[in-house]
Design a protein that fits this description.
- The strands form three sheets. The protein has a four-stranded antiparallel beta sheet, with helices on one face. Strands 7-6-9-10 form a four-stranded antiparallel beta sheet, with no helix packed on it.
- The chain is about 20% helix and about 30% strand.
- About 25% of the residues are buried.
- The longest helix has about 30 residues.
- The protein has about 260 residues and is α+β, with helices and mostly antiparallel strands.
- A hairpin with a 5-residue loop joins strand 1 and strand 2.
- It has two domains: about 30 residues; about 170 residues, no CATH class.
- It is elongated.
Length: about 260
């Protein structure tokens, strides 16, 4: 090694350079023997710091992703309850989805208390009967949940339809470890004073009624009934909401004027 060569084992403490081949060490920015200023050399940033930051960011992202995944899994595996089943039923009605609503009804208990058997056509248990959002049930409130003497559960609710508050109690039966179905969650609807007139309920045509009283089954909500004009009567429109007395099925009565 010549006098002008300086090869430290570690960066120079004066200028930070790793080596000084063929030249003496001068502090940064000072004048060398040749009268020229030395050029400061930046010390490279330690790559380890950048690596640690990346690892922290990766860990944070992985933690958030894991929490979201666990949250979605928890939502999917939450078991059904009488409350959630009734809530889903009214949610389907509010969305105008008759198929989803009927899927929550127990096959053996459909229209148990109604005037008609389940085998008969029920034109008001359809999407067409739920077409008018104003007449569908909204703003559901679970008022109370009580066990019944036969082992099922009674869920009392209120909802809004056509700007009015309606109360109804629905019976819920357990059909599996984590499955519940509704028993007869409908309304008995009677139409009076419409004999010989074309009648529609919630825009669903019922045709020409040939009896003084017609009886149907409908979803919860409000019912707008129209009776066509006759030589003796003008067209009539009546809107009603259900009532419920005791343990009986809720009912609604449409009464048209008669001559």
């Amino acid at each position: 090694m010549t006098p002008n060569e300086y090869t430290p084992a570690e960066p120079c403490r004066t200028c930070g350079e790793a080596t000084h081949p063929g030249a003496e060490c001068y502090p940064r920015g000072t004048t060398s023997r040749t009268g020229r200023e030395t050029t400061p050399t930046a010390i490279p940033r330690r790559s380890g710091l950048r690596g640690r930051t990346s690892r922290r960011a990766w860990i944070a992202r992985a933690t958030v992703a894991g929490a979201v995944t666990l949250g979605i899994a928890a939502i999917k595996i939450l078991p059904a309850t009488p409350r959630s089943t009734v809530t889903d039923y009214f949610g389907a009605l509010a969305d105008g989805d008759a198929t989803a609503a009927l899927a929550l009804v127990d096959d053996d208990g459909r229209i148990k208390k109604a005037w008609h058997s389940w085998s008969q056509a029920q034109p008001l248990l359809s999407d067409a009967a739920l077409a008018d959002d104003r007449l569908r049930p909204h703003d559901l409130t679970i008022e109370r949940i009580t066990p019944s003497r036969n082992g099922s559960t009674l869920v009392s609710v209120t909802y809004r339809a056509d700007g009015r508050t309606v109360a109804q109690t629905i019976e819920v039966r357990r059909t599996g470890d984590h499955d519940f179905r509704l028993l007869d969650p409908f309304v008995n609807l009677s139409i009076e004073g419409a004999a010989g007139r074309q009648v529609s309920i919630d825009a669903v045509g019922l045709g020409l009624l040939d009896t003084g009283v017609a009886r149907l089954v409908a979803f919860p909500g409000a019912y707008e009934a129209r009776a066509a004009a006759t030589p003796a009567l003008a067209e009539s429109t009546v809107t009603v909401v259900p009532e419920q007395l005791g343990d009986d099925a809720p009912y609604a009565t449409v009464s048209f004027p008669v001559p």
